Amino acid sequence: MRRVVLLCVSLLLTLPVLAGIPGVDVAVQVSARGQAAPAAIILSWPLTPSAGMAYHAHTVYRKAAHDTTWGTPLATLAGTAAGFTDTHVTPGVGYEYQVIRDAEADGLTFHGYGYVYAGIGLAAVERRGTVLLLVDARQAAPLRAELAQLAQDLVGDGWQVRRHDIDPTLTDKQVKALIAADYHADPAHVTAVLLLGHVAVPYSGNIAPDGHPNHQGAWPADMYYADMTGTWTDITVDNTAIKLRTERNRNVPGDGKWDQDHLPVDGAAVLAVGRVDMHNLPTFAAVDPTLTETGLLRRYLDKDHRYRHGLAPFDTVRPRALLGANPGNRRADILAMGSGGDALFGPGATDTLKWTPAATADSYTWGFGYTVGDFTSLNGHYRHAHAGDGADARHLRHRDGLLQR
């Protein structure tokens, strides 16, 4: 099987955005299409400068997917340029492009970035490697059929699947030892880990990523499972003097939570790690008794299967994204382009709306929530306490089931 073009866009945003520059100016929303004869890859991006904004230039770079540097520019274009055609391409070969925009507003100069990977007649990926499927052992029996279907779908997508049912009493250190044993036995092929159910959650660091000092301490760190060489310690961090909102952030020597704020200097994230965990979500079962932890996992796995095969409701849902944020929020404007929606579906493909009414009124392929909040609420979008009558819980499982938690 062959594809005409394989496309993936990501946007890198620069710091001036957070000072008030609209995201549309610093994110180059580049897209690509392939042309078979004569062979060419055609890049394009919208030109929609905000008031008072000037675009001075666009510089295009190209490299192979696994190259680590961009090298010299492929082309330097005017600020009014809305695209570029690369004719020096070979069918069957993929290329990664970077477009850098030079812009200015109110005397401030800055860069905007856009990325796209494209090719002509790229072959489908038939061999992705081996994925380690780590299943919470408590879910193995009740989800027997769904887990078998997941494994079959993964194989169909090009993966070899190696499954382990994990005793819920195992610590993160013990779980990592199991992962490491499989990885070191076959490092060339073991490339991903999928944690399904409440497998041990590593905590690490002494940080407050949300800026609140009463949250400073250890935070969830599945990166721990991705690193096969780094030195992780539990001997230095002691935040006992901090008055915390929750003890989950407490970190003291020897408590099983790691010291590192970042990936260790001798470490490397060599494995892709994903987690599907519906633990401790009692509001759903309060509204619908079938939506226990197991019930939520079952519904997720059913939805995953339907999505992979284009079954209802994914056969008709429009290719758009919902960004749950307050309209007019500049950071929401940035996230609309960088968090998946516009990158996946094209410029203007993201609706920035309040989550609850939008998710109940329409269907979306992709959803992302952004606002301030608490452990059980998203300000202006969802509150756990309001779920007693089902009003807010239902919006997370609306009519098409696309934005399910």
Question: Can you describe what's shown?
Answer:
The strands form six sheets. The chain has a five-stranded antiparallel β-sheet, with no helix packed on it. A four-stranded parallel β-sheet has the order 10-9-11-14, with helices on both faces. Mean pLDDT is 85; it is low at 1-19 and 385-405. 21% of the residues lie in helices and 27% in strands. It is globular. It folds into three domains: 8-119, Sandwich (Immunoglobulin-like); 129-276, 3-Layer(aba) Sandwich (Rossmann fold); 283-290 and 312-395, no CATH class. The protein has 405 residues and is α/β, with parallel strands linked by helices.
List the helices and strands and how they pair.
Elements: E1 8-10, H1 23-26, E2 31-35, E3 40-44, E4 53-63, E5 75-78, E6 83-86, E7 94-105, E8 108-119, E9 129-136, H2 144-156, E10 159-166, H3 172-185, E11 190-196, E12 203-207, E13 217-220, H4 223-226, E14 272-276, H5 282-287, H6 293-309, E15 321-324, H7 330-338, H8 341-345, E16 350-353, H9 355-361, E17 366-369, E18 373-374, E19 377-378, E20 382-383, H10 391-395
Parallel strand pairs: 9-10, 9-11, 11-14, 15-16, 15-17
Antiparallel strand pairs: 1-8, 2-3, 3-6, 4-5, 4-7, 7-8, 12-13, 18-19, 19-20
Summarize this, please?
The chain is α/β, with parallel strands linked by helices and 405 residues long.
Q: How would a crystallographer describe the biggest sheet?
A: 5 strands, antiparallel
Number of domains: 3
Please state the structural category: alpha/beta
Query: What is the count of helical runs?
Result: 10
Just give the CATH class of the largest domain: Alpha Beta
Q: Give the radius of gyration.
A: 23 Å
The coarse overall form would be globular
Helix content: 10-25%
CATH topology of the largest domain: Rossmann fold
Q: Architecture of the largest domain in CATH? A: 3-Layer(aba) Sandwich
Give unreliable regions as ranges. Answer: 1-19, 385-405
Mean pLDDT: 85
CATH H-level superfamily of the largest domain: Gingipain r, domain 1
Question: How far apart, in Å, are the first and last alpha carbons?
Answer: 34 Å
Question: How many E-type strands?
Answer: 20
Going across the biggest sheet, name each strand in turn: 1-8-7-4-5
Q: How do the helices and strands follow one another from N- to C-terminus?
A: EHEEEEEEEEHEHEEEHEHHEHHEHEEEEH
